[in-house]
Each structure stands twice: as structure tokens, then as C-alpha cells.
Q: What sequence folds into this?
């Protein structure tokens, strides 16, 4: 593979295994409509049974009182039981067998209700099988759309340890890239002038909770700040100053796992009778337990445990009350799905206009299953397409626009899809583009003229790259793409000015944030599309070749956006002649 993007489906083999399990088993996988119901909406639930399961009956078990539903063979023990009806049979070539599909409706529920449910199927021998390996699902009933301000967001992702140590501090010199470089919250505060001059309006901070690592995705306390990075007072000063200057603050939050050094986990492995044992899924106490990608130092939190769930939700509410504006949610596919309905309820109650989006490195159908639970997901599918087109140059304009037409049609307009070119878990764009700034500029122009809120990974705008690949001898060395921020004369000033112009353009042109996009077919080497809003129309043109190209087309747009290379524009008899 040209590119490695960290996630559960990072290889073709994993994708095939995923698809086989999906088709062969008893699966629900959040197949409900509508996914984000209003109080007056009944909800249709769907179940699919693979050819290896001889099931002819199915049920939904649900509850609305905060407790788990319980049922047996169609009889409700706690909550309600709804029988499902077989609606059709589907032949599957991959599994070489028939799949059965069942449906049923859950009645409408009052505003503010969390509907918790699971789905089962029963075979001819009377064996009842719970879908998706025993998964519990839930949804939150409310009229709580994605906050308006998020459509105008331009996000700057800051890896705190690598951004700036402070005016009176020097960078540290660790032996390896996984060491501590010394970035701090106070350092971010002192660089707010530069951030505001860049033009972004939202900061996304990497995890800032106490942690033994440079990255912080292994917290030991969700109610405090890592001392290396600063204090609660430093964070409060940053939030207050940022808010006063028109910036919002998002925290990176990990509900799925934490450090094995967390006091709670240490209690769990020291005493088999401890109440904390049930906060984790032990296969064999104390040494065998579920963990993030089988990394023993990252035990997975059992969010089916009510006390563990309440602890995480209290932390979420704590930081919203503290003043943050939302969360980027790490590894959002990890927690059980019924957790996210409780998460939605508590975040909307604590701060109705908070923004929450997930890291879901899975197919679009999996991303869309989070609709109504969080505001959206980082657009990893668009990321792959952007890198294939601009960095690796494997797709021409026709391939990219065909993808884009379908991709945009798949997602509803109110589902947040923040776009990005690189992040802390992959090679930087400039690295995979072999340092070609022209390709970065083209990709950034495309990113900033599409609908999703653009995310800039710190340093991309000033030419920060890396020294080695993140894949070495079959292993992931993700720290390679997390080098310290460039400041002063080390920055690429010309690239920085280009980014500032892109950001200003997006802020000025509402059509780039709200307008409908229409593909303009010119040539397979020319990427062209129109963004139209009210009576204003913009045409975006990008030459994907290295040579000069002449374009001749009707000139009826209010403004032309031309790619990075020199260009000339001339109107003749109502037609536009462009050389780029």
C-alpha cells in the first residue's frame, strides 16, 4: 500500500475479514431509520441474518428508563419486546448463500429519551442469538442539530508537546522522537497572535490530561492536567483569552481506554475482589484483558459497567462546564454504541452548542451510523482520495470528481465531516508528496473549497515535514510525523502566506461553506467544480499536470479561483480563455 492510515481496516486483508463477518453473521450495526429521530418519529430497526444461521424469528428488546432491557424468546423481562417481521431474502455471492432481513418499528418517544435496545434472532432449534456479538445500541430523541457555528469552523490541530515551550523556554532534546520536547499550554497562549493572524477560529488540542507519554492518549486522570503541559489555571487562561479573541477550544478525549498506570486499573489488578475489576473485561485475571489494539499498557474501559460509564460522562461534563467548546473523540468505534446516546444527552444538556466529532477510520456506513450520537466524523475517506489525487497522483480529475459526487451525496448536509490532509497518526502530506509544495497547495486549495470544516495539522502551513517514514521494518513509528513546530526564519513564509489567503477566502465566501457544489467537466487533467450560493457563483480550477494547459469555456462566474501555478485570464466574445 502507498499510504498507511492507522485504524481497524488499514489493510486489504482486514477489510475482507470485516466484510465476511458482516455478511455471514447476525447483524444490526445501527441499521435504523431515522438515525437521529425527533420526538414525533417512530424508528425502523433492521436485522440481517447470514446463511450459517437458520433463524426464522427475531425480536427487539428495548428500555427507556436508563437500565438495560432484558428479554427471552420474545418475552420482556425488563422493558419491552417487539417481534420483527421477515421482509425479504437476499442472495449473497461472497457468502454463497441466502441472507434474511427482518424489520420492526419502535414507537415514537418523548423529547430527551434515551432508547436502549438490542436485537436477537432465534433458529429452528430455539437458540437465540444476539446481534453483533452481543452489542447493545441506543439513540437519543431530541431536536438538537449540529451547531450553526461549526459550518464556519476552520480548525487548527495542535500537538501540545510539540507546538511551543514558551517564550522563556527552549525546546528539550530527547534521545528519540517519542520523548518530551517541552511544548506547553502557556506556549500556545503566547502564540495566539500567530494563530489569529493565520486566520483559523477553532483550536483542537491533543490530550492534555496526566499521562506518562508525549502524546497523552494514555491518561491516568480525566479530571486534571498533565504538569509538564501546565495547570488548570493555564488552560482556563487559554480558554478565556481564546474566547475573547474569537477562538473556540476543542479537547481530544479518549473514552475507550486509558493508561495501565491509572489508579483505577492498578486497583483492579491488585485485588480480584475489587469493585474496579468490573471496569475492565478480563479474560483471565489479572494478566489477560481487553486493550486497545492488544497494547497491554492501554486497557479498554468496560463502558457497559454503569460506574465506569458515569465516570467518563462526568469527566466530559466537567470540561464542558470548565469552558471548552467540544471534543474530538479518539477511536470512537471502541466504546459500545449505547454509550454514545448517553454521551449525546449529557453533552447537549451541559452545552447545547458544543461540537463533537469522532475518529472513525472505517467505511462511510460505519461513520454514518454515528449520526444523532455525535455531530459527525473526521473525513478519512476524503483524506484517502485527496492523497491519492494530489500526493501520489494516482487519480486523475475524472476519478476524483466521480468519487466526490458520490461521497457528498452519501452523507446528509448536517453530518459534520471535518477534512484534513494529514494528522499525527500518518505521514505528513509534504513527506508523501516528496516535498513538492505545489502539490500541497493544490490539495489545500481543494480542501478549502469543499464543504467540510478544514483542519490544518500544526506546521503543515509552514512547511513542516519529517525525517523518516512512519512505517519502518513493518512497524508504525508515528512519532516521525510529530516533530516540533517551526518558528521564525525556519518557517516557509511563502507557503504560510498562501494558507492565509486560502483561509481568508473561505471566510469571505459563504459559497465555499454553504454553497452547492457542481462538477464541471473540462478535461481528465483539470479538476473543476462550481460552488453556488444565492446569486454568486465561483469556479475552482486545478491543473493536475506539471505542464501548461489552455482552457476555453463560457465565462459566467463571479470569481475565478486558479491553482498555484502562474495563469492568465482573458475574455473574448463571452468566453473565457485560461492558461494555467
A:
Amino acid at each position: 500500500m502507498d499510504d498507511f492510515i492507522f485504524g481497524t481496516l488499514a489493510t486489504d486483508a482486514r477489510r475482507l475479514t470485516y466484510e465476511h463477518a458482516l455478511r455471514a453473521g447476525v447483524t444490526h450495526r445501527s441499521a435504523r431509520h431515522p438515525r437521529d429521530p425527533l420526538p414525533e418519529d417512530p424508528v425502523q430497526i433492521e436485522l440481517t441474518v447470514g446463511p450459517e444461521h437458520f433463524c426464522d424469528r427475531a425480536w427487539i428488546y428495548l428500555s427507556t428508563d436508563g437500565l438495560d432491557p432484558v428479554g427471552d424468546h420474545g418475552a420482556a423481562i425488563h422493558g419491552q419486546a417487539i417481534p420483527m417481521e421477515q421482509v425479504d431474502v437476499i442472495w449473497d455471492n461472497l457468502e454463497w448463500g441466502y441472507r434474511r432481513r427482518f424489520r420492526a418499528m419502535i414507537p415514537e418517544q418523548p423529547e430527551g429519551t434515551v432508547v436502549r435496545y438490542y436485537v436477537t434472532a432465534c433458529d429452528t432449534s430455539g437458540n437465540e442469538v444476539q446481534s453483533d456479538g452481543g452489542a447493545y445500541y441506543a439513540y437519543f430523541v431530541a431536536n438538537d442539530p449540529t451547531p450553526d457555528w461549526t459550518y464556519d469552523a476552520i480548525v487548527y490541530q495542535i500537538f501540545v508537546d510539540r507546538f511551543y515551550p514558551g517564550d522563556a523556554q527552549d525546546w528539550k532534546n530527547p534521545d528519540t522522537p517519542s520523548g518530551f520536547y517541552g511544548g506547553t499550554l502557556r506556549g500556545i497562549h503566547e502564540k495566539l497572535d500567530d494563530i489569529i493572524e493565520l486566520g483559523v477560529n477553532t483550536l483542537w488540542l491533543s490530550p492534555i490530561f496526566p499521562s506518562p507519554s508525549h502524546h497523552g492518549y494514555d491518561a491516568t486522570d480525566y479530571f486534571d492536567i498533565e504538569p509538564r503541559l501546565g495547570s488548570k489555571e493555564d488552560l482556563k487562561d487559554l480558554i478565556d483569552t481564546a474566547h475573547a479573541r474569537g477562538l473556540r477550544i476543542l479537547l481530544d478525549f479518549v473514552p475507550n481506554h486509558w493508561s495501565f498506570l491509572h489508579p483505577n486499573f492498578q486497583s483492579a489488578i491488585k485485588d480480584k475482589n475489587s469493585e474496579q475489576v468490573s471496569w475492565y473485561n478480563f479474560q483471565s485475571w489479572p494478566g489477560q484483558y481487553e486493550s486497545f489494539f492488544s497494547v497491554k499498557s492501554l486497557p479498554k474501559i468496560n463502558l457497559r459497567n454503569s460506574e465506569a460509564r458515569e465516570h467518563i460522562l462526568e469527566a466530559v461534563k466537567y470540561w464542558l462546564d470548565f469552558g471548552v467548546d467540544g471534543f474530538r473523540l479518539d477511536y470512537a468505534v471502541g466504546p459500545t454504541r449505547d454509550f454514545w446516546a448517553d454521551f449525546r444527552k449529557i453533552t447537549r444538556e451541559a452545552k447545547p452548542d458544543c461540537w463533537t466529532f469522532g475518529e472513525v477510520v472505517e467505511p462511510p456506513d460505519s461513520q454514518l451510523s454515528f449520526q444523532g450520537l455525535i455531530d459527525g466524523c473526521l473525513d478519512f475517506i476524503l483524506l484517502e482520495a485527496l492523497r491519492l489525487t494530489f500526493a501520489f497522483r494516482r487519480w486523475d480529475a475524472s476519478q476524483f470528481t466521480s468519487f466526490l459526487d458520490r461521497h457528498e451525496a452519501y452523507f446528509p448536509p448536517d453530518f459534520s465531516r471535518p477534512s484534513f490532509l494529514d494528522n499525527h497518526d500518518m505521514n505528513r502530506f509534504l513527506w508523501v508528496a516528496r516535498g513538492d509544495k505545489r502539490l500541497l497547495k493544490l490539495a489545500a486549495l481543494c480542501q478549502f473549497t469543499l464543504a467540510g470544516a478544514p483542519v490544518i495539522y500544526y506546521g503543515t502551513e509552514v512547511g513542516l515535514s519529517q525525517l523518516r517514514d512512519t512505517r519502518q521494518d513493518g512497524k508504525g513509528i508515528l512519532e516521525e510525523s510529530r516533530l516540533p513546530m517551526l518558528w521564525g526564519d525556519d518557517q516557509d513564509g511563502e507557503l504560510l502566506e498562501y494558507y492565509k489567503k486560502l483561509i481568508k477566502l473561505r471566510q469571505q465566501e459563504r459559497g465555499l461553506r454553504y454553497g452547492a457544489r457542481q462538477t464541471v467537466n473540462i478535461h481528465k487533467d483539470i479538476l473543476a467544480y462550481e460552488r453556488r450560493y444565492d446569486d454568486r457563483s465561483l469556479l475552482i480550477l486545478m491543473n493536475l499536470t506539471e505542464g501548461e494547459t489552455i482552457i476555453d469555456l463560457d465565462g459566467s462566474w463571479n470569481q475565478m479561483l486558479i491553482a498555484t501555478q502562474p495563469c492568465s485570464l482573458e475574455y473574448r466574445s463571452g468566453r473565457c480563455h485560461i492558461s494555467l
In short: The longest strand covers residues 97-106.
